[in-house]
Specification:
InterPro entries: MFS, MFS_dom, MFS_trans_sf. It comes from Deinococcus actinosclerus. By secondary structure, this protein is mostly helical. It has 18 helices and no strands. Helix 13 packs across helix 14. It starts with a helix and ends in a 6-residue tail after the last helix.
């Protein structure tokens, strides 16, 4: 890089800083709130419906993803992202009030608002990727993920203060996490208001595509298959494993540590997986992601906390590889980003809803085996992926 180019690169990185920090705060908010929603639902006396909050979150995200995608195509990334973070703040507060008062419908309403927010602010990854040349978009996505794991780790370190805050408020740590998450998302919304996007979606026709039209674009079907599979399997096991850990006798701090290991797998190696996908291509991401997702599912039902921790880490890393590859591919199809993301949320919602029923009727091992079989689907995406490495 020339001396003249270095200041411009540094300036670009500085301008992206609010986006990266906001995403870190959002991941921290998720870590202390929606990830543990199954435990709150169980505490409200509906253990058989432990997966329902996550299902509603994913259904709301599926509905909102296309709408936020269309808004960002027409108005730009900043208005869409700031609205999404603000909506998440409201959802967190509603969820906290509902859970603390023991009013299940109100808690579920908060979960739905949180899901609608996620359908918008998860598209921050496209804003980061759009800011760099295509050959370095995997690295840009990896950097965003690295900031996310920092946010999760910071919040995990606050597990005991959250417990103390909950005791002061007369609420459990899981319920208190929703209040803390709302504060984090509020700060993220303010940060995005100060962010100046480096570029916008490079499309000639800025309109939302219906699902059928999006799928007629060459390359979208195989990309959507990988993204939906990775998102569906990851959210299903991530949402229902804390309940299994609770049944194994793990306390709040231990469950938080388990989730942190999962978040480490999801985001902590973005600095490595992103550049590897840039160098080795989409097929590497799909194949390696599928293998790790299957390994995570097969180790989840094994006896012992160590196996459970290993499963959660592998689940996160497998998702990372398949999801980063799919997200990089989607930067070529801006008009299809929203509807493709929506499919991932639909898969996650169905997975958590059906997963809870499977656990209730056949046990956790049956769910794990089913997830292991479905983990082979990104191999189809690898077969259909373009051979180009850019």
């Amino acid at each position: 890089m020339s001396d003249a180019a270095r200041p411009a690169a540094l300036s670009g990185a500085a301008r992206l800083a609010p986006l990266y920090v906001a995403q870190a705060l959002a991941t921290g908010a998720t870590t202390v709130s929606t990830v543990l929603a199954s435990l709150i639902m169980s505490g409200l006396g509906s253990e058989a419906l432990a997966g329902l909050p996550s299902t509603l979150i994913q259904a709301s995200a599926a509905t909102s993803a296309g709408l936020f995608g269309a808004l960002m195509l027409r108005r730009g990334r900043r208005p869409g992202l700031s609205l999404a973070f603000a909506l998440g703040t409201v959802g967190s507060l509603v969820g906290f009030l509902g859970a603390r008062a023991g009013v299940t419908p109100l808690f579920l309403a908060g979960a739905m608002l949180m899901g609608a927010a996620q359908g918008g602010y998860q598209q921050a990854r496209y804003a980061a990727a759009e800011s760099v040349p295509e050959a370095r978009r995997g690295a840009a996505l990896g950097a965003l993920m690295l900031m996310s794991v920092l946010g999760s780790f910071v919040m995990t370190g606050f597990a005991h203060p959250i417990e103390r805050l909950g005791a002061t408020l007369g609420a459990t740590p899981e319920v208190t996490g929703w209040l803390v998450g709302g504060a984090l998302l509020g700060v993220a919304a303010l940060l995005i208001l100060s962010w100046q996007p480096l570029s916008g979606p490079a499309v000639a026709k800025r309109e939302r595509l219906p699902l059928a039209a999006a799928f007629r674009i060459p390359g979208v079907k195989s990309t959507a298959l990988a993204v939906a599979t990775a998102q569906g399997l990851m959210v299903t096991l991530m949402s229902l494993t804390p309940l299994r850990a609770h049944h194994m006798g793990m306390d709040h701090a231990q469950v938080a540590a388990l989730i942190s290991g999962h978040i480490l797998g999801m985001f902590g190696f973005g600095w490595l997986t992103g550049p590897l996908i840039d160098r080795l291509g989409l097929r590497f991401g799909y194949v390696s992601g599928a293998l790790l997702l299957a390994a995570a599912a097969l180790t989840a039902p094994l006896t012992g906390q160590a196996w459970l921790a290993a499963s959660m880490f592998l689940l996160g890393l497998g998702w990372n590889l398949a999801f980063v590859a799919g997200s990089k591919a989607l930067t070529r199809f801006p008009a299809a980003q929203g509807v493709t993301d929506a499919l991932g949320y639909v898969a996650a919602g169905l997975g958590t809803l059906l997963g809870g029923a499977v656990i209730a009727r056949a046990g956790f091992p049956a769910l794990a085996i089913t997830c292991a079989v479905l983990a082979a689907l990104p191999l189809v995406s690898a077969w259909r992926a373009r051979p180009a490495r850019s």
